[in-house]
Amino acid sequence: MAKKNAPPAPAAPSPERVKSAIRTGDFATALEVARQLHTLTPTPEALAVRKQALIAALGQAADRDRMVDFNRLMTEADQVDPNDPAWVFERACLLARGGRMGDGLARVDEATRPKIAGHAADRAIRIRTREFLPAELHAGFDMVMAAFRHHEAGNEAGAREAVEPIGLRSPYLEWKVLIRGLIAHAAGDDARAAENFGRLDPTRLPARLAAPVRVAIDPTFKESLPIETANDLLARQQKFTTSPIVDLLRKIAKEFGREKSLVPAFRAADDLLPHLRKVAPQLIPRLGNCLYQAILQQGQPDDMARYRKLFGNPADDPHFHKLQAQISEAMDEPAVAHNYWQKYGGWLAGKPPGWSEAVLNRARAMVWARMGDNANEAAEAEDEYEDPDEMFGFFGAPPRRRSKPRPVDPPAGECFRQAAQFAPDWPDASRKLFDALVEADKPADAEAAARAFLARHPDDLPLLTALANLVQSQGRAGDAAELWQRVLEINPLDRTNRFQVAYAVLADARRKLTQGDAAAAADIIEQQKELVDEQAEASANALRSVVFTKLGKASEAAAARGRALAVPGGRLGAAYYMMVDGLLAKLKPADKRVADKLFAEEMAKPPTPLEALQLIAAYDRYQLDGVTFRGQKTHAKKVLDPVGRCLTAKAPEIEFERLGDGLCTKEEWKLAKKLADAMLRRFPNNPQFYLIRAEAGVGSNEHAYTQQDRLRRAKQLVEASTEPRHQALLERIDELLKGLSSPFDLMEMFFRGRQE
After folding, report:
1. What is the pLDDT at residue 748?
2. How far apart are CA 501 and CA 499, in angstroms?
3. Of 59, 112, 637, 735, which is most buried by a Cβ count within 10 Å?
4. For residue 421, what is the domain's CATH number?
5. For position 405, what pLDDT does the model report?
6. Following CA atoms 233, 236, 237, 240 in sequence, which dihedral angle do they give, to the nearest 10 degrees?
7. Cα separations (Å) of 85 from 82, 107, 201?
8. What's the structural domain count of the chain?
9. What is the pLDDT of residue 154?
């Protein structure tokens, strides 16, 4: 007779068995194994495991309101290491969690009472009653419950406002943080939601409630958990969010994408609306807004009829004029967009109900501003091919061209004037009006509009700066200096502002000198001596030299002349200033000949790139200040002569970089190419010279494919460079590459050799 196999011996108690049972929620087994382990091996480690099992079992009993089991387990817990302070505090928290707040508070000191109260507050919110709480905790309870009601109704602002009074020492602080995290998650800001959830105390109920959501949005939190726990939380999250409504919402969301038709999304919305009307009617406008925005991104004309069938006319755009205006802008059809915005503005002019006067006026201002922007774009439209296919006209007849579009009505200036009228304190409207009037060659009207706005907002730096530039270009040096002084007072740390003020002061002094009042010119320079010498030492001393010559102070003039010529890099510019300012001051013929001779002598010397750049800047300065003089046009070519002669100078790379940038700014493409080619032979790993060469090539209509090669090489060198000034070029390179990209690049490369 065969012997029966003996039953397997029961597994020995171990910490791993306890932890495994806790993870699976089998707290009774966990506690039984922990008791056995502590009895067999009464070590501190076994005691800690038993306490861990007791906490888990007590927590489950408390959360399920099984008070008989809770009290029995608490009696056992009180007998296990009863005098350990940490264990006393842990038991006090569990007492509050189980509804025995008074007993818990009796066991702790004053410093830890708020934490005990926090666990009591958790239980009150869980069972939705404040009856067992002391009176001082009632207000916080009401705030949290009100916030949840607002959040459930979709009123996130109300939810945020409801918990705002909860302070840092309040037992309800954890609930405030939880609600803020839920609001962020509902708004799609999962990063902020995860940050809020990460601040929660893991022993408190809010952290446990947030865990299923947090594990789905916070990879770091998920990785910190045992895989079984993470999977369990993910399953709970999926269970919480699975319903016919959620499934249909997910179905709609899957259809959002620029390359997808919205027909399936509208079908799913049609199925969803009956459910929403029953359980969450407040979400219907939100769903409508989502589909409205989806039409803008990926819709077709028929989608507007589908929208109207499901949701009716949009309250704020009943005729879809605003939507069609935005679509037209996205399709680069500014004239069409202008017309739709005009129709939308007409609807707003009818004062639709529900709009306050302030909101309506601002909306009308914004519509007029959009119309102005589109009018500007339409006005800049160039002649285009009648048909894109006709770009292949080189195989036969030349392509036909369509005439330039008619200007839109009303024009940009009138649109911005209306915008400024409806929103007189909106900076963008007044700034755009100013720019439009300057573009329309109405400087007096532009100045009047700017000064009217600045009278109410004197610290508006962009408009103040624009006005200063306008006044300066008109040759009104005194007014320009006063405006630049105001700019500097608003932003005294901006070195560019200090530079502008210094040159405005010198322009004012030059104006006095030109009018024959040399003494007044000297006084103006002396009053701002520190500033002009700091920012414009060469030009300031050059002007002083001419002023002193005019006043008959030969020694002072000679000293100022020497200081001007001694400024590093300022030699040629200073000599040019002295020659031209002498002409403007109507110096005696002998003195003028001295200045002319000095300039000729300095020009004959080998120049550096910095000297060449400063000479160009000196010539440009007179144009910026609105100053004209005899022979000015003939100087334009003369001041560029040192550029070609400085290419072999022993100078730092950065000086050649700045000179190249200056040439590109002036659109002197031929010289810029010459400089870049020479520098690439000297400094083959400098990305800025590749960029300068590409910009010059684009400006002179060289083949785009060649410029792309140069820009890609420049980008490689920038990414490998450790120089901050080179790393700052990346945006310029990417912008230029973007402008050169074309679907016909391959064809251009194919024909490139034939054309060259």
Report:
1. 46
2. 6
3. 59
4. 1.25.40
5. 60
6. -160
7. 8, 10, 20
8. 5
9. 82
Placement of tokens 């029995």 in the chain: 72
Query: DSSP string covering 476-495, please?
Result: -HHHHHHHHHHHHHHSTT-H
Share of the chain above pLDDT 90, in %: 72
d(CA 514, CA 517): 7
CB contact burial 328-364 (16+ within 10 A = b; e otherwise): bbeeebbbbbbbbbbebbebbeeeeeeeeeeebbbbb
**What's the one-letter identity of residue 222?**
K
Residues 296, 282 within the same domain: yes
DSSP 312-326: -S-TT-TTSHHHHHH
- Residue 146: which of 165, 159, 135 has the closest Cα? 159
CB contact at 8 A, 369 and 429: yes
* Whether residue 146 is found in the same domain as residue 248: no
Which residue(s) pair with 385 in the sheet?
401
Residues 591 and 732 in one domain: no
3-state secondary structure of 429: helix
Q: Cα–chain-centroid distance for residue 704?
A: 31
What is the rounded distance in angstroms from the CA atom of residue 434 to the CA atom of residue 413? 9
> Do residues 271 and 252 lie in contact, with contact meaning Cβ atoms separated by under 8 Å?
no
- Domain assignment present for 705: yes
Domain span including residue 282: 243-312
CA 345/CA 347 separation, integer angstroms:
5
Which of the 8 DSSP states describes residue 457? -
C-alpha closest to that of 473 among 580, 623, 577: 623
Domain membership of residue 396 (yes or no) is no
168-185 pLDDT, tens per residue?
989 999 999 999 999 999
DSSP 338: H
